[in-house]
From TrEMBL:
Transcription regulator PadR N-terminal domain: residues covered: 14-87
Organism encoding this protein: Nocardia africana
InterPro entries named in the record: Metal_resp_DNA-bind_regulator, Tscrpt_reg_PadR_N, WH-like_DNA-bd_sf, WH_DNA-bd_sf
Pfam families: PadR
Domain of life where this protein originates: Bacteria
PANTHER family assigned: PADR-FAMILY TRANSCRIPTIONAL REGULATOR, TRANSCRIPTIONAL REGULATOR PADR FAMILY PROTEIN
Protein name in the entry: PadR family transcriptional regulator
Length: 197
């Protein structure tokens, strides 16, 4: 398993794109921009060029020898390794199922959830919804205990509760749609094979 510093939404996005196909850095950056992930993840241009050598050193990607197409400059193609696929799947399971991660990390996980089977994603987001529901109940109990506090001073808590409820409800509806087949899984015929699937 890679060192923890590599566990980031940016690393997941790069590995997720490489799991689809081997690519050179400019192509990875273009796809991140086309999919809106550069803004969602707040990726800077240099992040990608800093991240690829670290992913390579961790054994999650390998680079091919530089090649030239026509008059274009030489480009190094990166491809994901079986260890990289294992890392993607592991990170997805953690990010999809645990609400402790921030919104950007969860958005990255949703963007590349197709590396896992749809029924597993449904289970993971259901687990996330259960954990959020437990937090909602805990906070509600705290708010009830603070009945002597003027509501204006609890606004930050009630706002956070509204966000939690909205996320929980969305997650439950999303999981139901997956289970009922209302949403198709676009990569159902593509295998993200690794050593421990």
């Amino acid at each position: 398993m890679p060192p923890k510093p590599l566990f980031s939404p940016a690393a997941l996005a790069v590995l997720g794109i490489l799991a689809e196909n081997a690519r050179h850095p400019y192509e990875i950056r273009t796809l991140l921009r086309e999919r809106g992930l550069d803004k969602t993840l707040k990726l800077k241009h240099a992040t990608l060029y800093d991240l690829l050598p670290r992913l390579t050193a961790a054994g999650l990607v390998v680079q091919d020898d530089p090649a030239r197409a026509g008059n274009r400059p030489e480009r190094t193609i990166y491809r994901i390794t079986p260890a990289g696929i294992t890392a993607v799947k592991s990170w997805l399971r953690d990010l999809l199922g645990d609400p402790a991660h921030d919104a950007a990390a969860f958005a990255a996980a949703l963007a590349f959830m197709f590396a896992l089977p749809g029924n597993e994603v449904a289970e993971l987001v259901s687990r996330r919804a259960e954990r959020i529901d437990a937090t909602i109940e805990e906070v509600e109990a705290g708010l009830a205990a603070a009945s002597g506090v003027a509501p204006i001073f609890l606004t930050d808590h009630t706002y956070a509760q509204a966000l939690r409820r909205a996320e929980r409800d969305w997650l439950l509806a999303f999981a139901a749609d997956l289970r009922q087949g209302a949403l198709s899984w676009p990569l159902a015929d593509q295998e993200y094979s690794d050593d421990d699937s």
